[in-house]
Design brief:
15 strands; alpha/beta; single chain; about 40% helix; globular
């Protein structure tokens, strides 16, 4: 990596736009507060003094996963697909209220509520829906169990969560952070500064296969027959597990689109930079949480991966306190549950990078990739690039919803079968 002296010569304009994940870490590290983000972009809002901090701490530009794993998880990654882990399991909230409100098992909501109620944290940085624009999400500091419960469920849209780290660092802590891999990458880079490490001792990472541009939500609102102004309430994973898009209109109308019926937007609206992310299971978090797609755990369970000693202890403590019901599973079970996304993220990363050539300084373990998988992932990239074309998006917008739902379900089935080959 470049030396600190070399890095100090760089300014915000030296960060290649192609590497920006829009995590917001640069907003928090800027000493004069001239970097801003609205979720759509990160930009200069004043004159840069070229201190080099944004360049030095940018996680989109370079990441040494092995070094950061050793510092924060006390171990090298070891596993090319899952990273370092101490515990593999499935879990769900014991609270019916939390579990019914959750995207899958309600594990994150339960853990944050437990940490607040036992005074182990003063708040948690996470994502909520905006009150003034209920179709948009925003980062927020959740300070009460009630706020945590209102923020439950996945939010499928880009979010500059790390922009709030500076605000929280200036308050009395400690705070938990709940974020996607890009957010955790940014935090771990910032935690090279001791105050960031002390203020944010608990990091819960969410699994992430595809993030989405805000235009994806706009598309779904339109396909459901609403305009933005007609939306009173929106949930990406509402209803019985596995849930789906739920939109309540101001006129009392309600629309529901099953989750697997709108996954086609993942290919249409995935941010180009996300194609160069190799981290499905949030490998640098203290503990990672995602959906569980094993048939034997249908009905709302979460996959949980305890990575640091602290993360493993938190899971055990929550189970002992009766907050979570947990069962251990094996590595092969995780691969069976998430095989198609692990193939996309891990094998596909190296394939996509060979075509896209995003200028990254990433140190990664490389899984074996056969010719068949190379061809599959190359064809998937071609489909993504085609569907993300503005003209093709316009045509898709005019297709009947039943056709799009069939395309989504067929694509998921094909991807699952291909991962099992």
């Amino acid at each position: 990596m470049p030396s600190v002296i070399e890095e100090s010569k760089h300014g915000f304009s030296d960060i290649d736009e192609a590497v920006c994940t829009r995590c917001g870490a640069c907003v928090s590290i800027c000493p004069i507060g001239v970097i801003a983000t609205d979720g759509h972009e990160v930009r200069l809002a004043g004159e840069c003094i070229n201190c080099g901090l944004c360049y030095r701490f940018c996680p989109g530009r370079e990441m040494d996963f092995a070094a950061l794993s050793k510092v924060h998880l006390q171990a090298m990654p070891g596993d090319s697909l899952l990273g370092h882990y101490r515990h593999l399991g499935v879990a769900h909230a014991t609270s019916d209220e939390i579990r019914q409100r959750a995207a899958s098992g309600g594990v994150v909501t339960s853990l944050l509520t437990y940490l607040l109620e036992t005074n182990q944290i003063r708040g948690a940085i996470g994502a909520t829906m905006r009150e003034d624009k209920p179709w948009q999400c925003q980062p927020a500091i959740l300070r009460t169990p009630q706020e945590v419960k209102r923020a439950a469920q996945s939010k499928y849209s880009l979010l500059s969560l790390d922009a709030l780290l500076r605000t929280a660092r200036d308050e009395d802590g400690p705070f938990a952070v709940v974020g996607l891999p890009c957010h955790v990458h940014g935090l771990r880079r910032l935690q090279r500064i001791g105050s960031y490490r002390a203020k944010f001792p608990i990091v819960i990472g969410l699994f992430c296969g595809f993030n989405l541009e805000p235009a994806a939500t706009d598309h779904l609102i339109s396909k459901a027959g609403f305009t933005q102004g007609q939306v009173q309430h929106l949930e990406y994973r509402g209803g019985p597990w596995p849930g789906g898009l739920v939109i309540h209109g101001r006129d009392g109308q309600r629309r529901f689109v099953p989750k697997h019926a709108y996954s086609y937007v993942n290919l249409m609206h995935v941010p180009r930079r996300c194609l160069a992310c190799p981290d499905l299971t949030n490998e640098l978090a203290d503990l990672s949480v995602g959906d569980c797609w094993l048939e034997e755990y249908a009905g709302g369970w979460s996959t949980v991966i305890g990575r640091s000693l602290q993360g493993e202890r938190l899971l055990a403590e929550a189970a002992q306190a009766g907050v979570l019901r947990m069962e251990r599973i094996g590595r092969e079970d995780v691969l069976r549950s998430h095989g198609h996304l692990l193939a996309y993220k891990k094998e596909g990363y190296f394939v996509r990078q060979s075509w896209l050539r995003v200028p990254l300084g990433y140190e990664l373990l490389r899984p074996p990739i056969g010719v068949k998988r190379w061809i599959q992932q190359s064809l998937l990239l071609a489909a993504i690039l085609m569907l993300s074309n503005s003209a093709v998006r316009g045509m898709v917008q005019r297709l009947p919803g039943s056709w799009l739902a069939h395309m989504s379900r067929s694509g998921r089935t094909a991807a699952t079968r291909a991962a099992g080959d």
